[in-house]
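pasting for ref
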Amino acid sequence: MKYMSEILFYLSWPLLIVISYQSVKWLISKYEKKEAELIDSNNNSEL
């Protein structure tokens, strides 16, 4: 039983890294999309 918890502990690390990496990537893409919309609206107002 002791080994089981250790295995789960070591398996959870890569999972946490993957989840945090995916969430960071999602946040960055969301932020970039917002920036692109701001740039588009600025370009439209100049025309």
